[in-house]
Amino acid sequence: MRKTRADAERTRDQILDAAEMTFFERGVARSSLDDIARAAGVTRGAVYWHFANKVELFLAMQDRAWLPQEDLCEQLADTPERDPLTTVADVVCDMFRRIATDESQKRVLAILLLRCEYTDEMADALRRRKDADCSLDARFGALFAAAGDRGLLHPAFTPALAQGAFRALVFGVFRRWLEAPEEMDLTTQGCAMVRAFIQVLGDAPSLKAASA
Amino acid sequence: MRKTRADAERTRDQILDAAEMTFFERGVARSSLDDIARAAGVTRGAVYWHFANKVELFLAMQDRAWLPQEDLCEQLADTPERDPLTTVADVVCDMFRRIATDESQKRVLAILLLRCEYTDEMADALRRRKDADCSLDARFGALFAAAGDRGLLHPAFTPALAQGAFRALVFGVFRRWLEAPEEMDLTTQGCAMVRAFIQVLGDAPSLKAASA
DNA sequence: CTCTTTACATACATTCATGTATGGATAATG
DNA sequence: CATTATCCATACATGAATGTATGTAAAGAG
Questions:
Q1: Is the CB of B158 under 7 A from strand C?
Q2: What domains appear along chain B, each with residue ranges and CATH number?
Q3: Which nucleotides of C are covered by protein (CB under 7 A)?
Q4: Is the separation of the CB atoms in B125 and B118 below 8 Å?
C-alpha cells in the first residue's frame, strides 16, 4: 500500500466518479459519505482527506463538469457575422449533441437539476449556475436584439420576448430529456423543436405583407 | 387541553401548512419532523399521530394541492369547438393566473420542482406527476392534431413537434418564474410568451402562398 | 355516569451520519 | 539514509433524526 501523488490524484478522481454515481442514484441528500467512499473502494478517511465535507465534494464534482451555459458562452464568443437566429439555433443544437454523448456530463446535470435541493448550504453551487445563466443571457440578448434590428423577428415577438421564450423552450426541452431520456431523443427531436421555433421566429410576414 | 375531532382536523391542517413552509424554506430532505412540528406549534407526537412518516406527510401535502396538469385537464374537458390553438393558449394562461395568485400552490409547486429529490422513496409522488402529465399529453395531443388537420399549423411544425415544443416552453416559463419570481411576472410576460408562440404557430404561410 | 377511544405530549431506545483523532505505511526530500 | 510529509484506514465521540412506547386528559359512546 504505497501511494505516490499520482495515485492520490487517481483516488481523488475515483471519489469524484463515485460521488457522481451515488448522487445520481440516491440523490445528494440521501447519499452519505460512507456510501460514496464504499462506491469508490476507499473509506471515509480518504474522502475527508481530499474534501472537507459533502458540500465541498459536491462543488468539486460540479467544477469538474462544464455547465452548458458556460459551454454556450464559449461557443458564442467567436461566432461569425452570420444570421443571428441561425447562429443561436446551431450553437444550442451543437451543445445538445455534446451533452447527449457524454454520460458523465449528463449525470452531473441530472444531479444539478433533478437530484439536488438548493438550500442555504448550496448557495455557492446555485450562484455559479446563476452567474453562468446571467452571462449567457447577455450574449443571447445581443443576438436577439441584432435580429430585431434587422427586422428578422416575427412581429409577435419583441427581442426580449423572443429571448425569454427561447430560453424557456431550450430549458424545457433539456429538462424533459433528462427526466425521460427513453421518451425523447435530444439530438433529433430536441434539435428539431429548437430549429422549428427559430424558423417560425424568423418567418416574418411583415416583410411580405407590410401593412395589410 | 381538550381536542374535539374538529380540533384534530385543524391541527392536521396546521401540520400540513407547517410542512409546506418548512419544506419550501429548507428543502424536503433537510426538514426534520421536529422542525415541522415546532413550526406547527405541536410536538412530533402529533405529527406521528396524523402521518406515518415524512414521506406520507409529503404525499398528503401534495394531495392537498392541485397539480397544474390536473387543473389543465379539467379545463380542457369541457372546451367548446373553437380554434384549438387559441383554446390551448387561453387555458394555459388561465392556469398561470390562478397559480400566480395562490401562494400556497406556488409553494407546493416550488417544493415539487425545486426543493425535492426524487429517489426511490418518492416513487409514489413522482408517479402521480407522471400520470397527470400523461393524461394531459393526450388532451393536448388531440388539440394539436386537430390544428394540424385543419391546416392551422405552421409547416415547420408537425402536430407532435408543436406539442412537444409547446410543452417545453410552458414548463420552461413556469420553472423560470418559480426560480426567480422577481425577475419575471408569470401573468404578463409568461402569458405573453405563450400567446406569442401560439400565434406564430398558427401563422401558416402555406395558406397565403400555397406553393411558391 | 362509566368506559373506551381519541389526540396528543413526553420519554426512551436505536440507528445513522458526521467530524475528528489517531496510527501507520510509504513516498518525497535533503 | 534519516526525516518529514503525504495518504489513507481505523477508531472514537457526538449529535441529530427516527420510530416507538408510554402516559394522560378530554371527548364520545352507551
A1: no
A2: 5-63 (1.10.10.60), 65-208 (1.10.357.10)
A3: 6-11, 16-23, 25-28
A4: yes
